[in-house]
Write a structure and sequence with these properties.
The structure is a single chain. With about 140 residues, this protein is of the alpha/beta class. The chain has five helices and seven strands, in the order αβαββββαβαβα. It has helices at about 5-10, 30-40, 85-90, 110-115, 125-135; strands at about 15-20, 45-50, 55, 60, 75, 100, 120. The strands form two sheets. Strands 2-1-5-6-7 form a five-stranded parallel beta sheet, sandwiched between helices. α3 (about 85-90) packs parallel to α4.
Length: about 140
């Protein structure tokens, strides 16, 4: 069952490194502004976007599987129908403990697979909103 308690959300928000799948180069889009907010609040953001070379002055990776650095949270800004593939890549990683899908993004079957693999799942919530509400 996806995380919904404030205590568990606070714990997840204490992470350090977030891979943002679908991170955008376009200011004004949530997929750009939310990761930028997270960076401004001390998180190390690793952009994942196959159509960008660099975002926030950091190399953008083509896929989550190509991220060599350790990752605490996988933050997803892709349509719900793409979540399954991203979850499979997250499951293959020993380091990513949490899969977080942003507002309007959910895939219950993929969430159940992630949880069965020992990952915590947050669905259909904005990481910035939850950070402002619980931490910031």
């Amino acid at each position: 069952m996806p995380v919904d308690s404030d205590a568990e959300l606070r714990e997840i928000l204490s992470a350090d490194r977030i891979a943002v799948v679908g991170c955008s180069t376009t200011p004004g889009k949530a997929a750009h502004d939310v990761p930028e907010y997270l960076r401004e609040h001390g998180y190390e953001v690793i952009p994942v976007n196959p159509y960008a070379d660099e975002i926030f002055g950091r190399e953008a990776h083509d896929s989550l599987a190509e991220v060599e650095a350790e990752v605490d949270v996988v933050d997803v800004f892709r349509p719900s129908e793409e979540v399954a593939g991203i979850v499979e890549q997250a499951i293959e990683r020993d380091d990513a403990e949490v899969v977080w899908t942003q507002l309007g993004i959910a895939d219950d079957e993929s969430a159940a697979r992630a949880e069965a693999a020992g990952k915590r799942v947050v669905q259909d919530r904005c990481m910035k909103v939850e950070h402002e509400r619980l931490v910031g």
